[in-house]
Please model this.
Amino acid sequence: MSVLAAIAVGLLMGVAFGFLLEKSRVFEPGVILGQMQLRNFLMLRIFLASVASGLIVLALGTLTGIVPKLDPKAVLYGAQLLGGFVTGVGIALAGACPGTVLAQVGVGYRDARLTLLGGLAGALTFAYLEPAIRPVLLTGSPGRLTLHGLLDLPFWPLALGFAALLIVALYALERWRPWRAELGERADGVLPERPETGPLPSGTAPAGR
Model:
């Protein structure tokens, strides 16, 4: 694939991702904070659906030969555990993540501009500090660990089996908490108070515009 073709494909995928992100409303601060507090499960639905569809596509790709070989990244326990913790804390505090902050900026959330600047500053800081922290967090990797490799099984049947389990989980989640009820009156994930559990996450959406 040429450079121009790769850029074109990337742009098209970015447009599709942004369109679906906006339509799912998963970029809303109320949705994100509600998920972190286990009170709103719209974000979990999107993640489970994405993983299930990705597994199906990869399984069919490896089965037909369109995807000749999988290329997972190496495991780095220190970097992944610490990075996941710091990212989770940041998402809970900001009501945004690297994949949603641009959508929040696009729809007019003023708070998201500061979140975006903070993310860029963090990335720049890491770039300068990487040589110092590499011996601590970015070494000692056990290599590329995969479940099908550990079980010595073909990838595609294992992937399809996990995708089926995720689809069942999505169905059960929808039966328990219908997604339309979790959108809220303004489709921002901000739900009314429930006396038995106290107020649901109000987020910063109305005040942040």
